[in-house]
Structure formats: C-alpha cells, structure tokens
Amino acid sequence: MLNSYYFFEILATYVEFMLLYAFCDRLFEPRFTKNKQRLVKQFLTAILTTLVTLANIVALFSYITAFVGVPMVALASSILYKEKFISIKNICIFSVTYIYYATVLCIDFLSVSFISTFFPGITGYNVLNVQNIYRIVHLVFVKSIGILVYFLMRRHLHKNVIKPEYFFYLFLISFLIKLSSFFVNQLSSLWLIEDSGIKYVAVFVHTLNIIITFLAFVITKKLTELNEAREYLHISEVLNEKQGDEYLRYSQLDTENAKIRHELKNHFLVVSQLIQEDKVDACKKYLEKCSFEEPLFHEFAQTGSDIVDMVLKSRIYLAKKSHILLNYTGVNLTNIHIEEKDICSILSNLLDNAIEACNRQAPEAKKTIDVTISEQWGLLRIEVSNTVDTPPVIKNGRIATSKADKNLHGFGLQVIKDCVKKYHGDMNFSYDEIAHTFSVALTLCLA
Asked: Per-residue pLDDT tens for 273-288?
C-alpha cells in the first residue's frame, strides 16, 4: 500500500527528471515544436516517474535500478532532442544523462554520509531504505541543491558550449565516478560500519567526485572555447588572404583587359587605313590573320561598391569561360554599412560554389547563375541560385560533397556562416524541383 511518504518520493523523482530536461533544454535542439515538445516531455516524465515509483515499492534503493535506469532515461531523452544518442565519439545525450546522474548520486551519497557520520543513531542505510522524516529531509536537501546548481550554472550552459567529440570523455569520467561511488559505499557497507575513519573517507570521496565532475565540465568548456578561438583566427586569416587574392585577380584581369583594348585599337587603325586606301582584299586578309580575343570584362552596371563590382566582374568572366550565364540584379550599395572584406567573402564564396556546381553539370546542360541583392527595412538580402543536375544533400547544416578533401570543402560555407552570425543574420538553403535550381539566401541586419 502507498503511504503519505510515497507522495514525497514521487515529487522528488518528478523534480529530478524535470531538472535533467532543464539542463538538456539549454544544451540541445528540441526535436518537436514548442507545444509538442512540452507535451512529449511531460508524457515521458510521467512514464519514468511511474516506473521509478513501482521500483521504489520493491526497494527504495537498488544498485540494479541505478545501472538500468540511467540508460533508460538517456534513451527517453534522445526522443526529445536532435543530438545523437550513441556514436563512436558523439554520445551527447547519453553523456549528459550520465554526468547528471553521477552528480546526483554523489550529492545523494554525500548527504547520507554526513547524516551517518555526524548524527549518532541515524544510519545511512535507514535514510536510503526506510521511509521516515530523515529521508524526507534528505530528499528535500538534495533536490534543493540540484535546483540551486542549475540556476548557478545555466548562464554557462548553451548550445555548442562543449564540442560533440568531448562528450565521449565526459561520459567516461561520469561512468568512472559512478563506479567509484558504488565502490566506496560497498566498502563502508552502506554506512552500517561504526568506523569513523571509513565514514570520513566516504565523505571525502563523494566530495572529490563532485569537484571532479565540475572540473571536467569547466575544462571541456575551456577547451571548446580555445578551439573556437583558433578556428576564428584561422577564418580571419583566410578572409584576409581571400580579399588579397580578389584584388590580385582583379588587377591581373584588368591589366589583360587593357592590353586587349590596346591591341584592338591598333587593329582598328590598320583596318581603317586599308579601307581609306580602298584595299578591300588586303583588309580581308589582315582581318583573317588577326586573333580577336573578347574583352575580359563586359560593360557592367556599377553597384556602388568597388569590392562588389570587382567580385561580380571577375565571376562573370569566369562563368562565361565555362559557358555559364550569370545574371545580376541588385540595389545600390553605396550606403550599405557592411565591411568590404565581409561582403567580399560572402559573394566570392557563394559564386565560387555556384560556378563549381554548374561545372559539374553535363556539357550540353543550360547553366545559369542568378544573383540578387536587395535591401528593405534595415535588412540586406543576398540570394545566389544556380542550376544543378541532382538535388544537393544537406546534412547537419552542411552540403554533402563528393570531393576527396572533405575537410577543405565546406570551409567556405563556414566562412559565410561566420559573417552571417557577425551581422545577426540568417542563412537558408532551398531546392526548386521544377526549375532544378539550388539557392542560398542570406539576410543580414544593417542596423
């Protein structure tokens, strides 16, 4: 029969599960819409609370329940969030659940160790296995500590606070902490032994385990920040190099274009002279011998930004060489407050990717690239669409590649994402099944 104590047990279990999901909410992307996510979360919490309550009727504390229950809760958590449940080095949900329960277990055992050590006549065994007022105080104390820790840590918790590959090591640490806690409790026979030395060892070990858990989180968080700093530094170097390459390319092409215009001028002078002397046959022979190269840059409507003009003119030339029609529609960018190196990186990477995608089409295919830049309500929208043979595969926010160097491919896209993030913008991919075009649309805040 259920007694009044079980209502405290049920409440404590419910709070424990909801606290876990509160941590997960800050670390992972929800799998469902807001309202559906809330309903599924409550449904899973109700099921898990019911199962734990049934287990409590059999035994309030069981090592079997602790080992079997944690993977079950992790599995339930994987239903709620998009992160991977288990892979070789990316067991995010599993790791967070394990480190959460390793911490809860250490706080539980620490509380019981204190009671057993400093209150004569009250054993840890009775607190864990007998329903009484001391167990209620213990439950209230432990859950209050958990809630306090959450509110102290939540400003440090956010998505991508820890690199996915580091979760593997957090899992190992938390698993070892659980094993050590069980070992110490077996050594002290659940605090039945009246040896104060063993009891103090139990208090020390559980305190140390809690410290190790938080140190593990802090260290992995710092390692993630260092990695991000190195990545941003590398991206900055690539941006500067990219801008330098664009100026160099433009300078070289402009020089070649000037040479062609100069040669054309000389050719026209010769032809004009031959015509004036009525030497038509000689004029025809001269024209046949001449090799007329097309100008590298055609007439192009000025955008108001030298860097944008440079990028578009050079890409129009490259596209024409590959038999690709590149169309541009845009607003005057004179008063657009975006750093030139950023818009250079965005446009050059988008257009390079689009030209590369068009070049993968069959030679006889009609290849087009459309570039549209518009501004409205303080937002700058840049959209680049190109024809494709097959729909692109987008996985984890990245476009799958067939390139041999998969690490290098996608870096340009990452540079674009960082620029978008800098201007508090957004980036979306889309595929038109009727026109067979793939589009990348960016929205940047100008304020």
From this structure: 667 777 777 777 766 6
Instruction: Return d(Cα 285, Cα 305) in angstroms, integer.
Output: 44
State the architecture of 298-445 in CATH terms.
2-Layer Sandwich (3.30)
Q: Would strands 368-376 and 325-330 be described as parallel, antiparallel, or unpaired?
A: parallel
pLDDT at 163: 81
d(CA 27, CA 153): 12
Length of the chain: 447
Confidence (pTM): 0.55
Give me 128's structure tokens: 């864990």
Map residue 431 onto helix, strand or coil. Answer: strand
Mean pLDDT of 8-14: 89
Note whether 444 and 380 are within 8 A (CB): yes
**Is it the case that residue 73 has pLDDT exceeding 80?**
yes
Alpha-carbon distances of 165 from 19, 246, 333, rounded to whole Å: 24, 36, 42
Q: What is the DSSP letter of 409?
A: T
Contact 305, 199 (CB under 8 A): no
Contact 414, 393 (CB under 8 A): no
94-130 burial, b if ≥16 CB within 10 A, otherwise e? bbbbbbbbbbbbbbbbbbbbbbbbeeeebbbebbbee
Q: How far apart are the first and last CA of the chain?
A: 65
Query: Contact, 423 vs 383, CB < 8 A?
Result: no
Q: Nearest 5°: CA angle at 95, between 91 and 97?
A: 130
> Of 213, 187, 211, which Cα lies nearest the Cα of 200?
187
Using pLDDT thresholds of 50, 70 and 90, give the confidence band for residue 267.
low
Helix, strand, coil share of the chain (percent; to 5): 65, 10, 25
Provide the token pair at 14. Answer: 């419910």
At residue 385, the 3 state secondary structure works out as strand
H or E element at residue 177: helix 167-187
Q: Which of 360, 373, 297 is nearest to 324 (CA)?
A: 360
Domain boundaries for CATH 3.30.565.10 within the chain: 298-445
Is residue 113 within 8 Å of residue 33, measured between CB atoms? no
324 within 8 A of 387, measured Cβ to Cβ: no
The answer to whether 429 and 349 are in contact (CB under 8 A) is no
Which amino acid belongs to residue 284? K
Query: Strand pairing partners for 242?
Result: none
